Amino acid sequence: MEINKKVPSFKLLGTSDLQFNLSDYKGRYLVIYFYPKDATPGCTTQGVDFRDAYKKFQALDTEIFGISRDTLKSHENFKEKFTFPFELLSDEEEKACELFGVIKMKNMYGKQVRGIERSTFVIDPDGKLIQAWRGVKVESHVKEVLQFIKQHNSI
Known catalytic residue: 43? Predict the structure, then answer.
């Protein structure tokens, strides 16, 4: 995905029986963040940071979605345990992962494994990709995303 290019529509199933379709969110800002695995330390911290800033994003007419390859059942448990006010989307078939190019070879305990590179994308109300962060470090990342939306929203 290239910055300032329209993001092709995609569909995924989400928590709360959501049938996510990108085209349904035209007219709003979207923050889509990809994370490796439900209920792991970094992914939990990231989700909690988005949860804690959720009202600020909503005030900027911005919706948040988290995506991983976990099952809907795993997502429902993760969302409920940490009271995330946003939906988690299941990408078991890696459709969105491929579209955004977030599957990478990673070292885990000395072995090469395919996994999601923690990444965040902002899509503008016209459906264009306007920002991408790849290889995200969790600490202070949500503040950076919020700051970007604030600056972009005031243009």
Answer: yes
